[in-house]
Amino acid sequence: MSFTNGIYWVRQDLRLADNPALVAALEESQNVYIIYVLEQDKEIRERGAASKWWLYHSLKSLSEDIALRGGTLTIRQGIAKNVIPAFLDEVKGEAIFWNRCYEPEMIDRDKHLKTTLQNNKITVKTFNSALLSEPWEIKTYSVFTPYWKKLQEQPIPRPLDAPTFLQKTQNFIFSEKLEDLGLLPVSPDWAGGLRDTFVASEAAAIKRLETFLEENVDLYKEERDRPDKFSTSKLSPFLALGLISPRYIWHKSQQEIALNPNKKAAVDKFLSEVGWREFSYHLLFHFPTLPDKNLRKNFDKFPWQPDPIALKAWQQGKTGYPIIDAGMRELWHTGWMHNRVRMLVASFLIKDLLIPWQQGEAWFWDTLVDADLASNSASWQWVAGCGADAAPYFRIFNPTTQAQKFDPEGLYVKKWVPELRKLPAPQIHEPWNCSISVLKEAGVLLGKDYPLPLIDHKTARDRALAAFERIKIAQAGA
Ligand SMILES: Cc1cc2nc3c(=O)[nH]c(=O)nc-3n(C[C@H](O)[C@H](O)[C@H](O)COP(=O)(O)OP(=O)(O)OC[C@H]3O[C@@H](n4cnc5c(N)ncnc54)[C@H](O)[C@@H]3O)c2cc1C
Q1: Which of 305, 327, 364, 410 is the most exposed place for a label (fewest CB within 10 A)?
Q2: Final residue belonging to a domain, choices 129, 149, 184
Q3: Is 440 among the domain residues?
Q4: At 476, is the pLDDT very low, low, confident or very high (cuts 50, 70, 90)?
């Protein structure tokens, strides 16, 4: 043992399995103190409301898992740059171990803290546990396919086992009560739908992966774009706070291929989506302004038309486009939205309404249980066309034809927009084109029971293309 007292600082790695910082702390220290700090540094973007709810339950579960193994999770709140040195002082810690974060402000904080601690003769050891590959290990790519090919050429370390025993620290250490951190909604308690949808625990994450690989992955390639099917893994919230590690997902998936070689194509497709998460972190690391600023600078001149009333209709799922409204209501109710529908609602906000992508990004940040700075900002920029490897500006999703293709029987819309449930498919996706008698039979009075379209898609599309032409000209002239 190199140290009498070591600290493992829990950050976005709320699990015991495949946790290199925790394993190293246990190997190198006689006593290991485990701390979580609810960050209050204004430089670091505060979590959104849904993510705070998820954090509460994930911390609760982690502290129970730690207690089951004989240890204690200490919780504090404040500015981590101050709280951590004070805690090291308090417990006479000689070393601290943490798994790295890659959000630009967190990188700055960690660099600053590391220097301060090292100047005070504290040993600092940091590890990768959040990604398959460190963002700096692969040369900078702004196109996904060569990046992903390169990443897969690298060896992916095997995940580490969870420690079976965590010793109780000798002294009484003050810990904040989880209930006092203000992470849960109080009045109103809007989290009922989130509770019905997700259970936060490391065991639930592992079970989710296993069930997905055993039962759902076969049809992943064919059905992953279908919001009416249960065809994707729904692992994103677990990955966002590190309840499961991508290395664990990778190796478990390889085992599944070894057992069932016929699943290879489907599992590879699934892993390539995990690859998009890696790519998003790669982009965030190399382009730290990704969350706020257009990667393609010509977009700085884009003639956005911010419109608080239209933004609100979008947020509330009252645009008059059933697939858009279904997605936005699914998000509000469950804290999650299907990927294809995320693309559609984002395209609608940006291209049909000409509302700046940052306003959509902010709403997702607040309402997504899986809110993740890298994936959220990279995806919004991708849809807008101003990001890396982005959808071309002229790809403007038609919400009606997309809905008819990916929700052919209208089941997804019927679930989330129940006022339309008696309309037949495929007309359910375009109620404004239904005859008076069809609407009457379905009990729908447009403009009263369900809104008329906020904007005509064809007109909106022409307007967006004209706006994009202007920045093309601006770019050519720059
Ligand atoms: C506008 C927009 C915003 C988004 N914001 C987020 C976000 O804040 N957090 C987030 O985790 N994902 C975000 N995504 C990506 C994607 O929609 C979700 O990761 C996915 O829907 C999660 O469902 P799943 O776990 O069932 O995915 P699966 O299809 O089962 O994929 C497995 C895992 O791969 C990763 N993944 C899949 N697709 C993507 C993608 N396009 N980009 C990055 N990673 C991906 C996720 O970690 C996911 O859990 C966003 C996409 C769009 C279009």
Answers
A1: 305
A2: 129
A3: yes
A4: very low
